Amino acid sequence: MYDLNPAANAWLYPLGLGAYHTGVEVHGTEWSFGGNKDLGESMQTGVFTCSPGTAGIDQGARYRCALPMGTTSFSFQAVDALISRMKPQFLARDYDLIHNNCNSFCNALLLELTGQALPSWINRLSSYAKCCPCFFPSSRGNSSLSSSRPADGFVAFKGSGYRLDTVSQSEPQTAKVLSAAERRELIAQATASRLSLEKKDN
User: Is the pTM of this model over 0.90?
Assistant: First the structure.
């Protein structure tokens, strides 16, 4: 789980609210879902992978914690087959910040893998937005999770799009293009931070 707006979530998290990105880690791979407003009516999937705990670290998202969601009997091959079946159901063009976001995908994946749903408070802000759409305009297809090669290896939040640290996602931004060395350093920092948090939890 990641904070999309760390400053706001510092206040909202204790209240059971907040703006979060989520991914499901299984067999050492983190799976999630994002959109790309530039794809038009393309049938390209929005499902992508990244190294656990590293999604969006170069665009303002901050890894918060891992939530144990049980175990699965799915083998690596079975998970791969399941993801292949889900890809057409989660197209990049269909991403919507309120109605069909990363949390929607993770909830569906968790139900398949473990029979457990994503904790409802994680997507509570979107649930409230459905009741008050005038305050939360729809952003169909808009996400910083844009890539020409989703689900084909390491894909972080990159390319032009909307910054994840803006809850409304109303201001277009251009993401900084990182060199391979810079990306490795960020991944190392994220991994160290995650291990530190896990050590404290234990």
Answer: no
- Per-residue pLDDT of 158-195, as tens digits, reads 333 333 333 333 333 333 445 566 656 656 665 665 56
For the segment 116-161, what is each residue's pLDDT rounded down to a tens digit? 999 989 988 877 766 655 545 555 555 544 433 344 333 334 333 3
Give dist(CA 158, CA 100) in Å, integer: 20
Q: Which two tokens stand for residue 200?
A: 């404290």
Residue 128 CB neighbours (<10 A): 13
What is the average pLDDT value for the chain, to the nearest integer? 74
65 included as an active-site residue: no
CATH number at residue 47: 3.90.1720.30
Catalytic residue among 50, 65, 99, 102: 102
Whether residue 60 contacts residue 165, with contact meaning beta carbons closer than 8 Å, is answered with yes
Of 21, 106, 131, 134, the catalytic one is: 21
The domain of 97 spans 2-201
Q: What is the largest CA-CA distance in the chain?
A: 47
Helix axes 76-86, 102-113, angle to 10 degrees: 140
Distance, C-alpha 199 to centroid of its chain = 24
Does residue 132 carry a catalytic annotation?
A: no
Please say whether the beta carbons of 112 and 82 come within 8 A. yes
